[in-house]
Design a protein that fits this description.
By secondary structure, the chain is of the alpha/beta class. The protein contains eight helices and eight strands; from the N terminus they run H-E-E-E-H-E-H-E-H-E-H-E-H-E-H-H.
Length: 271
């Protein structure tokens, strides 16, 4: 009898997970051009996107590429936000330490170039845990070698690990920061970001009753509180993306640099 009860519980949990995924389009795994980089690629609602120029790049957590819950996040975001979502495989089935920031940058450039060739010119990043810190780095120009100005209009860090002041100081665009109750405080970075020209566009959300990883690999869909928190995260992510897209000027610092560049060119031509 006990075994039968256990079997029913397991089947019920499996049914719940399948139900969570039943409404969303499944992505495909494919390689980007001639590179060795695979991506999990999801196109929005039944292969139809309303935000045709917008694409989101997801940077997974330490658990890597083949995680059902992380892929489910991509599928749901693509479906509900009606956009293109790509999750690159930065680790390539190798030790995490091999995914240096230099290599991650090159992988991001590869994905950016691919998306630009597909007519996506408004790119954003979302990262979990390991990926949350890399999103912060990609949203600025700290030790970046691949760009002077970030190619993204915003970044979102969800229970990001090792968020730090030096990367916060180099941030060039507004970001949304989300963490669990047992993740480190945001105090060290908020004191820096409030001084930025776009500081009032940065947002912070703490889910005190959640544990690290609750949105991606550590998500527990049999826990109603966890499901509610994930629902709220998706709502906040969509709302924040719209807020920044509709703000008119995504990055004042970059806009000023661009203006100065064009003034210089015009002056040179008039000489």
């Amino acid at each position: 009898m006990t075994s039968a009860v256990h079997l029913l519980i397991i089947l019920s949990l499996l049914t719940l997970v399948v139900a969570q995924n039943s409404s969303y389009p499944l992505g495909t795994v494919h390689r980007i051009g001639d590179s060795d980089l695979n991506v999990y690629d999801v196109l929005g609602d039944q292969n139809s996107t309303s935000k045709t120029k917008v694409a989101i790049i997801v940077l997974y957590d330490i658990r890597g590429f083949n995680v059902t819950n992380t892929r489910l996040f991509c599928e749901r975001l693509a479906y509900e936000y009606k956009t293109r979502v790509l999750m690159p495989d930065f680790f390539r089935n190798q030790p995490t330490a091999n995914a240096t920031w230099s290599r991650v940058q090159q992988d991001l450039v590869t994905v950016n170039t691919y998306l630009n060739s597909q007519n996506y010119n408004k790119l954003a990043t979302i990262g979990f845990c390991w990926g949350g810190l890399r999103v912060m780095k990609a949203s600025g120009n700290g030790n970046n070698n691949s760009w002077t100005n970030t190619p993204y209009f915003t970044g979102i860090s969800i229970h990001g690990s090792q968020l730090n002041v030096p990367d916060a100081e180099m941030l060039q665009i507004p970001m949304l920061f989300i963490r669990a109750g047992n993740d480190p405080s945001f105090d060290n970075i908020t004191s820096v970001l409030t001084q930025k020209s776009f500081g009032n566009q940065c947002e912070y959300k703490v889910y005190e009753n959640m544990r690290h990883g609750f949105v991606s690999a550590g998500a527990n869909y049999s826990n109603p509180e966890n499901v509610d928190a994930i629902d709220d995260v998706h709502y906040r992510v969509r709302t924040y993306l719209d807020k920044i897209l509709n703000s008119g000027s995504v990055n004042i610092e970059i806009s000023l640099l661009t203006m100065i560049f064009f003034i210089f060119i015009l002056n040179s031509l008039s000489i």
